[in-house]
Write a structure and sequence with these properties.
By secondary structure, this protein is α+β, with helices and mostly antiparallel strands. The protein folds into two domains: about 80 residues, no CATH class; about 120 residues, 3-Layer(aba) Sandwich (Cytidine Deaminase, domain 2). Helices cover about 45% and strands about 15% of the residues. The protein contains ten helices and five strands. α10 links the parallel β3 and β4. It is elongated, with a radius of gyration of 20 Å. About 5% of the residues have low confidence.
Length: about 210
């Protein structure tokens, strides 16, 4: 019996619902995501090839959505990207209160760590500087990402925020802020003041838990 035959016979979708996700392999979990209905042997084949190509489950989160689209098509890539995004959409309001710049690092690291492209994210806070949401704003390339201040402010207002902080990663691993990074920080200070918001800072994340304030 081949691996594909075994996959079809053991009904991973049923095991997932009855016994939980820990009973499934990485390939089986991805195959369930890729299948619109009952997970199939063909989905297993696609999932196996995909994980080998991107470097396992960690590689899925590091790949740009457009790269996944080229590998598995638009519909399947959209399911994967949505599934990977959900764990980051938790409510952090009762967990993290921003009192100093260092408090921002664990807020942003789950979203930005290990990315091969530079990504800009915003943390939305309430009146007490408690983080209520973390959202990606732009996703660039290895050389940089656009810095749309208007979109940042719009994201904060859309989530009923009263304060916010921003962060981006340096794929090179060196978190030292560039002159452009510091200029973007100044632009955010000005935009926040015009919008009646409190700007809490700008963090640049590097490798191995390194970071710097921009």
């Amino acid at each position: 019996m081949t691996a594909v035959d075994l996959f079809a016979a053991t009904q991973p979708q049923e095991r997932l619902l009855i016994h939980g996700p820990d009973t499934l392999t990485d390939v089986e979990l991805v195959a369930v995501l890729l299948s619109a209905r009952q997970a199939s042997a063909s989905a297993f084949t696609v999932a196996t090839r995909l994980l080998r190509t991107v470097g396992g489950v960690p590689g899925l989160s590091r790949h740009h959505p457009d790269a996944l689209r080229r590998l598995v098509g638009e519909s399947l890539a959209a399911r994967l990207v949505a599934a990977l995004a959900l764990p980051l959409r938790r409510d952090l309001g009762d967990v993290v209160t921003v009192a100093e710049t260092a408090d921002l690092v664990p807020v942003f690291r789950p979203m930005l760590h290990g990315r091969r492209r530079e990504c800009l994210a915003v943390a939305v806070c309430d009146r007490r500087n408690r983080v209520t949401a973390v959202r990606a704003v732009t996703d660039g390339d290895s050389a940089g990402a656009p810095f749309p201040v208007r979109d940042i402010v719009a994201t904060v207002l859309r989530h009923d925020g009263h304060a916010f902080a921003i962060a981006h990663n340096h794929p090179s691993g060196d978190p030292t802020p560039s002159a452009q990074d510091r200029g973007s920080t100044k632009r955010c200070w000005g935009a926040a003041e015009l919008a009646g918001l409190n700007f809490l800072g700008h963090v640049v994340l590097g490798e191995h838990d390194t970071w710097a304030s921009a």
